[in-house]
Amino acid sequence: MDKGIDTIVSRFLNYITIEKGLSPNTVESYRGDITKYVSFLEQRGIDNIEGITINLLREYLADLLRSHISVSSVKRYSASIRHFHKFIMSEGLSKANPTIYLETPRGWHRLPKVLSLTEVDALLKQPDEGSPEGLRDSAMIELLYATGLRVSELVSLKHGNINLEVGFITTVGKGGKERIVPMGEYALEKVKRYIEVTRHVLLKGRQSPSLFVTALGRGMTRQGFWKIIKKYARSAGIQHDVSPHTLRHSFATHLLEGGADLRSVQMMLGHSDISTTQIYTHINRERLKRIHSECHPRP
Length: 299
Prior knowledge:
Elements: H1 5-19, H2 24-43, H3 54-66, H4 71-90, H5 117-124, H6 132-147, H7 151-155, E1 162-163, E2 168-172, E3 178-182, H8 185-203, H9 222-235, H10 244-257, H11 262-269, H12 274-277, H13 279-295
Antiparallel strand pairs: 1-2, 2-3
């Protein structure tokens, strides 16, 4: 029986068209995914299904991610490949299915963008603290970087969430889980000044349960703060995209670079699973590899 890859691909496409009765669009999607996969195998000199290994599959999916294909697309490619190899096994064309031990891309993430210490410093210097809005913005940005809060947690803060005497905040994250996060001296001082000097000026006699308010006396929104961050990032000359979540990523990465243990960072970020926090160790490894490549005389 012919075990050539091209022949098996033709049989697979006939199978999903005729026996499975998949729609023409779905069949074309499979055709495109499998054709791309086979092209990769050919580049590696593989022309027979027995030469396909788990390491080759991992290399292929890693190449897809490095080529800036979205994670959701990589998941689709992975699913197509699994179905293809399942068909191969069902037809008795191979004794082993290399996709059995292929890690699911479900938990994969692109490494998040983080700011360098120089970029964080430049960003924090942008707000004009001589104006009410500027002092508020400075306090919010400093607090976000000092605590790693999600932007939704930041704009949801109330007076009762902040302990100015001890210097920590209490917030409720995903799943309704409450956690306590230290603020740091810089953020504590900025928030104190905002509360004492600025907040009542923005409220103009109005009442609001929100800690951070707009000039209309309303609570700051996620969209509003997102625009604020974008504005200051541009004025700081930061070239890549910056969002409130970039500061959360930077908070975690800089803590780990400074020697913090992973479990403590997990608690401060409010991650229920430490595997989510471990992505920041990958960032550190990638940065070390880049520094080595750029600086070592024999990279």
